[in-house]
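Example record for the data management plan.
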Amino acid sequence: MCSPRAWAAFVEELADDWRRLDDRVDAVTGEVQALARQDEGCRRLMSVPGIGALTASAVVATIGNGAAFTKGRDFGAWLGLVPKQLSTGDRTILGRLSKRGNKYMRTLFIIGARAVLAKPGSWAKFGLEGWLAAAAKRLHHNVLAAALANKLARIAWSVLYHGRSFARDFELQSVS
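Corresponding structural encoding:
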C-alpha cells in the first residue's frame, strides 16, 4: 500500500498533467480558430448552423472548394450520412446509415447537428424550423440528428462549391 503522502503527491501530479493538457487544448483551439478566420472558405462554412471552426477547417482541408463532388448528395454519401437502400421491384426500403466514408468528418457533422437540435429557438433563425418541426414529429431523435447532419453536409458542399455564405433565405431546395 502507498502512504497517504505518496498518494497525495501522485494525485497532485496527475492534476498538474490535466491542467497542462487543458492549457494545450485551449492553445490549439485558439490556433485553429485563428486559421479558420483567415480562410475565406472556412468563414463561409462557419455561417452554416452547426459548423464551427474545427468542422470548417476539416472540410476545407479535406475537400477544398468541393469540386471533387458533382452534387451535395455525393458529398453526404462520401461522408457516410445517407441510408443504405434495399430495393426490390417497386419497393424501396431505407436502412441505417451506410457509415462508409470519412468517420471523423461524419462525427463532426453529427455533433453539429445535435448542437442545432439542442436549441429549437434558433431553428427559425436559420430557416430550418418547418423542416425540423415536421421531421421531429415522425423521426427518432438520433435519426433526426443524422438527417440534419446530411442536410448540413449538403449545405456545406453548396456553400463551398458555389462560393457563397449561408443565409436564412438560402435555397434549401437547390442543395442537391
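Summary line stored alongside the record: Residues 4-38 form the longest helix (35 residues).
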